[in-house]
Amino acid sequence: MMRRLALVLLAAAALTACSRRDEPAPPAAAPAAPKTTLQVLATSDLKDLEPLAAQIEAATGVAVQFRFGGTMESTQEVLSGSTADAAWFANAKYLLSDAAGQGRVKLQEKIMLSPIAVGVSESDAARFGWNKPDAKLTWADITKAAKRGELRYALSNPATSNQGFMALLGVVAAAGGKGEALTAADVDRQAIADFLTGYKIVGDNSTYLAEQFTKQQGTRANAFINYESWLLSLNASGKLREKLHLIYPFEGVATADYPFMLLNDAKRADYLKVVEYLKGDTAQLWLARQTLRRPMKAELAAQVADLLPARGFQVELPFSPDRQLADGLIDAYLNEFRKPIASTFVLDTSGSMQGQRREQLVEAIHYLAGADVSLTGRVAKLTNREKLWFLPFSDRPREPVLFEIPAGTRVAKGVAPQADTDAKKAELQRVRDSADNLRMAGGTALYDSVLAALNHMLEQRKLNPDYQYSVVAFTDGKNTVGRNLDAFKQAYEQLPEDVRGIPVFMVLYGDAAEGDLKQLVSITGGRVFDARKTPLYAVFKDIRSYQ
Fold first, then answer.
1. Which of 89, 242, 249, 414 is 20 to 30 A from 29 via CA?
2. How many other CB atoms are found less than 10 A from the CB of residue 177?
3. CB 128 within 8 A of CB 141
């Protein structure tokens, strides 16, 4: 049964401004001595809190050192016994939904609040009548608009990020109408399929999604589903073609409560000092004004009511304790409901790749083809209905080799993780065998090969438009053969306009030219992933979150 949030009265005033304010640094208390360090594993959507570290240290004597990662990546690390002293997630309900996660977390304190919201371009919100003061829009309304093609949205990957998963869970919980009693068997499969019809811009990182939405607002997408704080910040940035009208579905939304969690009991005293500071008035007001997340106390919320929409809190959708529901929903999203992936892996097989670099590339491909059974490995694994081409290159691009993962067993009701069929196992083995047979020799025709991959993807999209297309290019060196970057740009400009919907993700490794790769992705709508200090298999898993 849906529960009214006790915090519904926190923001009683109407929104009169959504811009961040210049807030002077809080006055520093005398530092405690001796100074100690607290290593904090944080999800990537909390990067805007880095300036707070200096204020925490000044007030408490505890030096907070942040290390950022994706939600599933960070969850896996905690479950595996992280060396971090504390963890800070937007939401830890998935982590704490089983005994293993509960055993890792010694203490937790909720620090701030931000509900999921649907940000719709103001002109479209007005056209649909969604901006009326008395509008009581529901998740069902959002889902119907997506199915009709009226709502085309950006959303972080529900399989790897908290806000994407909680939005999908909101659709399921509202359609099921059972609240906390919802189980995996109760999931309305049609509601998922209809909602995902409008999913147009995919990514794992809110910063990346904001960049892509800003570029494609009004063309490819007209809505952005994210935490309220991100949407308000985007409105205040001045980068959008038009501002977003925020909708909080009437049945309820999931709210990020940003639990700060103690992992290392030996650091309990330092943890408690930091928590006390974070929950104090000075830090709470700084967080509200600088990050547009809501304070925990009603009296503080009243002081920033001019920054935050009064309708932000309505009903909190409960998180079902059924872990099978969460795991089944993620598995079904990846293997059944999302638009299937079609990608070309442009693989550098030049002479400089011989030896350890080749071994790492082969290992990474093995992991994607099922060798990694960890939580993040299962999420990154090649999925049912997926098409993957290997395009090896050295002095020139070679012919693409196709791998096609078959569909799974048809499910009539609910969601549940499925075991791999024999046909899928055979195709995954074929991927691993192909990686084992890669041979390294020759120069590096990088730009010719990326261009060949884009042309290949364009041709495939004409034949099969119902796929999510991308190019993933890996190189350990600088371009030495064929087109240079300027010639690539000229050739890219001659491609059809719909090439803009095919992002190119570049993996930076070895002696590759970082500046050139960043220029390439800036025009192809992709991103550079740095594998010089991070294991290559981990980078490949990160890329999967953007596909």
1. 89
2. 13
3. no
**Separation of alpha carbons 425 and 431, rounded Å:** 10
Burial of 237-266, coded b for 16+ CB within 10 Å and e otherwise, reads eeebeebbbbbbbbbbbbbbbbbbbbbbee
For residue 132, the 8-state DSSP code is: -
Residue 34 DSSP SS3:
coil
Q: How far apart are the first and last CA of the chain?
A: 35
Query: Residue 178 class from Cβ within 10 Å (0-12 exposed, 13-18 middle, 19+ buried)?
Result: middle
Side chain identity, residue 392: P
How far is Cα of residue 89 from the mean position of the Cα atoms in its chain?
13
Residue 159 has pLDDT above 80, yes or no: yes
| Nearest Cα residue to 393 out of 434, 450, 464 | 450
Give the predicted TM-score (pTM) of the model. Answer: 0.85
Dump pLDDT digits (tens) for 166-206: 899 889 988 887 666 788 998 999 999 999 999 999 988 88
Cα 353 to Cα 442: distance, rounded to the nearest angstrom: 10
What is the DSSP pairing of strand 341-348 with strand 387-393? parallel
Distance CA 200, CA 496 (A): 19
Q: How many CB atoms lie within 10 A of CB 527?
A: 23
- Report the C-alpha gap between 78 and 379 in whole angstroms: 16
Say how many CA atoms lie within 13 Å of 509 toward its Cβ.
24
Per-residue pLDDT reduced to its tens digit, 479-526: 999 999 999 999 999 999 889 889 999 998 888 889 999 999 999 989
Task: Calculate ∠ Cα 359-365-368, nearest 5°.
Answer: 145
